[in-house]
Amino acid sequence: MILRDTINKVSKFGCIVQKYLSHHDPRHEIMATQLDNFDRKLLMEVQRDAQIPQTELGVRVNLSTAAVNRRLRRLADEGVIDRYSAIVAPEKVDYPLTIVANVEVESEQIDLLDAMKRTFAQCPQIQQCYYVAGEWDFVLVMTVRNMDQYTELTRQLFFSNNNVKRFKTLVSMSRVKVGLGVPVDIVDE
């Protein structure tokens, strides 16, 4: 019994690694942009508040307004800054419920996975979607008005999709931390 469990665990781990390698294309690896500490400080500040005036930003990071402007433009052009957006309090717009859904698929054929990714990406209630290795294939973070709306979404996204083998729902009891900020370390130069 112990040997069979060990073999099953090793086999499952091998499948996870194989899944990662089969979908990992080294041509899509992104080289990190060379950032100095001024760039890093700017990134920390704009992640906290993207509406801060550039003059104030310059004071905070010890750069002229023109230098701040040039650097922010370069960081955006190089894709380091992906976009600027507003963070809306979901409960203020009648979307107080956060759901995490884990989804396992029947088949990992590329066309079927791509179709699922498109469906998930088009659903406005899905805030985040991750294709993952492990027991589950997708992890979805959703915001909904209530359980009735979530039930309807399960019908549309999961029950009507022949490639969904099973899903698991986690209902958030409170939002402890929410954010997409990326840690930007200051380096010793």
- What structural class do helix, strand and pairing data support? alpha+beta
**Poorly predicted ranges (pLDDT <50, ≥5 residues)?**
1-13
Query: What is the straight-line distance between the termini?
Result: 56 Å
Spell out the helices and strands N to C: HHHHEHEEHE
**Strand adjacency order, main sheet:** 2-3-1-4
User: Count of DSSP E strands?
Assistant: 4
- Beta strand %: 15-25%
The whole-angstrom Rg is 21 Å
Mean pLDDT: 88
Overall geometry: elongated
Helical amount: 40-55%
Number of helices: 6
Q: Largest sheet, if any?
A: 4 strands, antiparallel
Secondary structure layout plus pairing:
Layout: H1 2-23, H2 37-48, H3 54-61, H4 65-77, E1 97-105, H5 110-122, E2 126-131, E3 138-144, H6 147-159, E4 164-171
Antiparallel strand pairs: 1-3, 1-4, 2-3
Helix pairs in contact: 3-4
How would you summarize this macromolecular structure in one to three sentences?
It is built from 6 helices and 4 strands.
Give a verbal description of the structure:
- The structure is a single chain.
- This protein is α+β, with helices and mostly antiparallel strands and 189 residues long.
- It contains six helices and four strands.
- A four-stranded antiparallel beta sheet has the order 2-3-1-4, with helices on one face.
- The protein starts with a helix and ends in an 18-residue tail after the last strand.
